[in-house]
Amino acid sequence: MGDCCTTPVLTPPPSWRASADSLSTIALIGPPNSGKSTLFNRLTGLRQKVANYPGVTVEQRMGRMAGIDRDDLVLIDLPGIYSLDPFSEDARVSISVLKGQMPGTPKPDAVLLVLDSLHLTRQLMLAAPVLSLGLPTLVILNMTDLMEARGGVVDPLRLAQELGAPVALVSATKGTGLDAIKLFLNRHRGTPQHDELPFMLPVLGNAMSTHLWAAQVSLKTGYRAPLSAENSRKVDAVLLHRVWGPLLFLVVVFGVFEVVFSVGQPLSDGLGDLLAKFGSWGTGYLPDGWIRSLVLDGAWKGVTSVLVFLPQILLLFLFIGVLEDSGYLARAALIADRVMRTIGLNGKAFIPLLSAYACAVPAIMATRTIENKRDRMATILVTPFMTCSARLPVYMLLIAAFIPNTFFVGGLIGLRTIVMLSLYVLGFWAAMTTAWLLKSSILKSNDAPFILELPQYRMPTIRSLGLRLVDRGRVFLKQAGTVILCVTLALWVLAHFPLNKGHAPELAESVIGRLGHFIEPAIAPLGFNWKIGIGLITSVLAREVMVGTMGTLYGADPETQTQTLQTALHHDLPLGGAVALMVFFAFAMQCTSTMAVVRRETNGWKWPAIQFAYMLVLAYSAAFVTNWVVTAIWG
Amino acid sequence: MRLLSDLEVGECGVLVALDLPPGVQNHLMYMGFVPHAQVCALHRAPAGDPTVYSVDGIEIALRRETARAIRVEDLTVEAIFESELAEVI
Hints:
The complex is a heterodimer.
Chain A: E1 25-29, H1 36-44, E2 48-52, E3 59-65, E4 70-77, H2 89-98, E5 110-116, H3 120-131, E6 137-142, H4 144-149, H5 156-163, E7 167-169, H6 178-187, H7 207-220, H8 230-239, H9 244-283, H10 290-307, H11 310-326, H12 328-342, H13 350-355, H14 360-366, H15 373-382, H16 391-402, E8 407-408, E9 413-414, H17 415-439, E10 451-454, H18 462-495, H19 511-523, H20 530-538, H21 545-556, H22 565-572, H23 575-587, H24 592-602, H25 606-634
Parallel strand pairs in A: 1-4, 1-5, 5-6, 6-7
Antiparallel strand pairs in A: 2-3, 3-4, 8-9
Helix pairs in contact in A: 3-7, 9-10, 9-11, 10-18, 10-21, 11-18, 14-24, 15-17, 16-22, 16-23, 17-23, 18-21, 19-20, 20-21, 23-25, 24-25
Chain B: E1 2-3, E2 12-18, H1 22-30, E3 38-44, E4 51-55, E5 58-62, H2 64-67, E6 70-74, H3 77-88
Antiparallel strand pairs in B: 1-6, 2-3, 2-6, 3-4, 4-5
């Protein structure tokens, strides 16, 4: 292993240029679990933009560096990678971005390389290929506060000398040391300095020589690794225990749902009351007549019937965020690996599936951690079966309207909770079965190795959880303010035309009524009436549009106008149809955002089309059977 | 010579060689699975597989089929000495 001494002297790569007179784009790169995201949030604050790189499934995160008062600079967050080895898609994307070969992304003028100072020797293996690109680079040693607390030592000056690049000691969680980053950016006005290029770099692409180089550098700089934290291991001794592990796992999952329903419901009700009062107070200023009807019955009722679910959705995202940030999600993947293997996937597929309880769109993006292409495809295709938060409003409405609030086992388990949990189980079961079918037929592949790093347990920061919630809340409100508002307004108009002798027609005689009656024969076998039919059409946009549609349709009908939506539905729909409707929603793909993200991730319309058709057929058949069975037993 | 998969929970060994496809092998080496590295088996998942190994201060879970392709030797005084020597060189 003496080839460490044959490290060649590297000349700057040809793409290297010394022209730009000012910085504009900065790239942030680092290994997974190096605290890169925390630092990114620190440096950019709330002004972030998330998109995908064209043609690949790698997420592109960008933001202006407002956190250190440099709004003029754009920071690009590159995916967390161990090496620039083009083995993984993440690494290939990182290389293209750093070399300025990624279409639509400007070549970075400088690089911030984040390394976790707790495991510096191994993390330095990424420094070699990054530094050899010849871009002005600041090496950021993160978590130095933790390292020092645990007895670790590093000499930043020696390290800077060895690497030929400035080194900054930072704690991203505490926000200390950010001044050094500011200083680096101020000093480098885009004029790369020749003499700062590293002079001793290993042969690239060989893991062994890179390792030896890294070991040598860390030795020369007097690096002493801190004692490893025993706490995580002690916690894992319980959380991965043969008996307690799976038990706690189930407790965690059930606990999340319990809190979402028991805490979220009163919040939702309160918000609903508030919005209703606000609506009638506001429209009191409008003249009585069609304008007030349009604003109150059309727009306001439709939009607020969806808005009230904001507390529950935020709670769900909060819990998924806590699970992810604390490091428990990786353990859950480990526990689930054995089960996932029986359906032909591995434990890593479990993380997107669990996040899909919140929303399928980020979940499908999260599938990029799965290295095997066929495994990832199977996971993408089954993810929309998981009960996402957009189904919640529909389930909540139907359960409240049709399922009696009875309790069993001395008030411990409510019938409504059982129905809700069954719907979750149903979605999970559909996902598993479909994955198994796919993996044993068209997406069959050799087992890809399962390699999963377990991060240290960390206390989730309020900052990062807050950012998540603001982000998701914004998406939800935007949806309510655009898609749902437009749909409900259009519905109101269609429900009031054509005019009959200057008056609005009976609902059944309106445009929307005629359309509903036209499609009724197709959905009658499922126990649905024509109003539900309209809801099924509009909810192809997004599932929660269903609730807004019902709100507008029953609000426009004089017979049901004075009733609450639940009462109106209860009188208008048989029990069989109501249960069938829930089953339909459990299976059907009614979400244009998901279809768009699947199209992007699979590079074409083929897979989303297959997925839509498959889920629709399944939903229709299952709803048909459900209606028949429920009507036969309780009808 | 033993296989990584043979290590009982709580046992440690010194890594000798990896016999895996190049892509996977490089990936593992970048994660710290390099010859002379000290590897310990920490926990097994509740179902008995995968197993969590500690290497170079981090914890990585591998399935038995992957661990079976990694050769280790017992943690003897000589092995420890060699492992530290490798660090120095």
